[in-house]
Design brief:
By secondary structure, the chain is of the alpha/beta class. It has a single domain, classed as Rossmann fold (3-Layer(aba) Sandwich). The chain has a five-stranded parallel β-sheet with strand order 2-1-3-4-5, sandwiched between helices. The longest helix is centred in the N-terminal third of the chain and has 16 residues. The chain is globular, with a radius of gyration of 14 Å.
Length: 137
Amino acid sequence: MNQIYLAGPLFSLAEIEFNQRLCDYLISLGYKVFLPQNECRGKEGREIFETCENGINTSSVVLAILDGADADSGTCWECGYAYAKGLPIIALRTDFRQSGDTKGFNAMLYYTAAVTIDSPENYREKVSEALQKISTN
């Protein structure tokens, strides 16, 4: 596996810290991770877009955090782009609210995912298992 593109909202301290902890966990397992909040630090506008587009283009899987009443719009675009490129997507939802069409997910995101994780319990281990499953296919 080349690289994991870790997509998710990054607009609150809680989101930034969650993303970073998950990134650090994946790195500790030996994965290379593209985390937009780190890769785009100090960039603006088109440069952010191009950096993230390149991040997806050089990744072999997208791990998308889809928490919240409605998934982050940037994360939705990243999932759509990855799906169009044929990259597997792991959809992670730790939010217990059931606001979407399918187990809290928007159906368009749920059905593009190779793997869905819809519970906060042991989510890191479930992500690791999903990555192993995808890398063996």
